[in-house]
Amino acid sequence: MRKIIATLGIGLLMTGAALAQSEAGAVWLLINPGARYSGMGEVGVAMTDDAYASYWNPAALGFMRGREAALTHTNWLPNLVSDIYYEFLGYRQFVRDVGTVGGNVILMNLGEQTRTDEYGNEQGTFNSYMLALTGSYGTALSRKSSLGISIKMVHQHLTDRGAGAEKGKGYSTNFCFDVGYLKHQFLTKNLTLGVNFANIGPKIAFIDVSQADPMPTNMKAGLAYSIEGEYNKLTISYDVNKVLVSAYPDRDIDGDQIVGGYDENGHKISGGEYNKDGQREYAHSDEWYTGIFTSWIDDWLLVYDSASDGIGDADKDGNTNDGSFSAELEKLTHNFGVEYWYSDLFAIRVGGIYDKTGNITMKDGKWPVPTFGAGLRWAGMGFDFGYTAGDPGHPRQNTMLFSMNIKF
Predict the structure, then answer these.
(1) What letter does residue 138 receive in the DSSP assignment?
(2) What's the rounded Cα separation, in Å, for the pair 35 and 371?
(3) Scanning 31, 163, 212, 392, which has the fewest C-beta atoms within 10 Å of its C-beta?
(4) pLDDT of 240-252, one tens digit each?
(5) What is the CATH architecture assignment of 4-246+326-407?
(6) In whole angstroms, what is the distance from residue 146 CA to residue 163 CA?
(7) How far is CA 219 from CA 84, 153, 195, 199, in A?
């Protein structure tokens, strides 16, 4: 179907950690798998205890024994397109004297699309897909804490060739890694702390290397509080996400009505990316090893509070008021959920997602998007269902996830 534009732009719509600058590539890596977690508002970094740990927090593998496989299937963004499917296959296994190893395979099938040239003429069809292969390892540092790491290969096949003067090919293969930490009995006996830094790696280039985008490096931190009885267990969990990417659009910082025109030393040259004061005005993004730090302050200290800088909506006085710490806080995605188990057989779940920047909210940003779910466990088999509600017409509305777990 003719949806290439929608496909390339789904990063703003498909994750609870959408980028304000829309400048990261492979944002589909931020889609959270597992119907169990989906039903709880997409929390999991501090409470994962199954084969999904290789995605949520590889450190959790350090406390696991035995073997388990997990599968997730969903028709992603059903209100936007009908043939985008997300598939997840995860596995974990304890190895004596080594620790627990795990991994996952993620396939994002974007379906069939129509190829056109630079003039809009149709030239047949092609299939697009995204694939990620992850290997993980987790080990306990003590009886209460653990550390984990994941190595990830990411292959993105948007098209088999570019159009017109575009250079290169429409696919890329990149590598990145995750680092996670888990702490049980954090502050109190029943509280667990989890932190995971995901998708740390170099930029992604598709058609043109000069247009490379940052990897969607993301920090996920959370708390999970559990209360257990003889037949009942209640878990309350909260996660917060921060995309660690600093990306800037074209900006006329010095107000001379021209973007760039000089080199970094203030010498006038054709195609120069800087202004005469040596400030970079062309669109660009920081490297990952810089972005993990500058992403916390790029809207606070590094962005100029002027309508001419190309960022933010100007008020009546011509100021955008974008250089504030409140702008950084608005980029955070908040996830929270509650899970109740009866006799380790049946579970009901409820949660919420609030992402103001990514427009994943209810009632014009006033309320979080509600989620619901349920689960069954019997004889080593587990079945889960997760449902995301939302305002009518929102791409995330009526998203349903189905998962199965198998313990060996």
Answers:
(1) E
(2) 10
(3) 392
(4) 999 999 888 788 8
(5) Beta Barrel (2.40)
(6) 48
(7) 26, 19, 7, 9
* Structure token digits, residue 262: 């000089």
How many angstroms separate the CA atoms of 271 and 263, rounded? Answer: 9
Tell me which of 11-15, 81-85, 334-338, 361-365 is least confident: 11-15
- Closest listed residue to residue 1, CA positions, set 107, 108, 109: 109
CA distance 234 to 228: 6
Would you state the structure tokens that stand for residue 299, as one six-digit string? 């809207």
Mean pLDDT of 254-281: 87
Side chain identity at 111, as an amino acid letter? G
Q: What percent of the chain has pLDDT over 70?
A: 83
How far is 382 from 211, CA to CA, in rounded Å? 44
**Number of C-alpha atoms within 13 angstroms, CB side, residue 275?**
15
**How far is Cα 163 from Cα 101, in angstroms, rounded to an integer?**
43
pLDDT in tens, 366-399: 889 999 999 999 999 999 999 999 888 777 888 9
Distances (CA, A) of 387 to 45, 83, 123, 146, 399: 19, 18, 39, 31, 6
Q: What is the pLDDT of residue 16?
A: 45
Residue with tokens 């940052």: 214
User: Can you read off the two tokens belonging to residue 23?
Assistant: 């400048």
pTM of the model: 0.86
Q: Do residues 17 and 244 lie in contact, with contact meaning Cβ atoms separated by under 8 Å?
A: no
* Cα–chain center distance at 72: 17
- Residue keyed to tokens 């897909």: 129
Instruction: Give the mean model confidence (pLDDT) for residues 107-134.
Output: 81
Residue 396 to residue 80: CA distance in whole angstroms: 9
Greatest Cα pair distance in the chain: 75
Mean pLDDT throughout 268-292?
Answer: 86
Boundaries of every domain in the chain:
4-246+326-407, 253-285
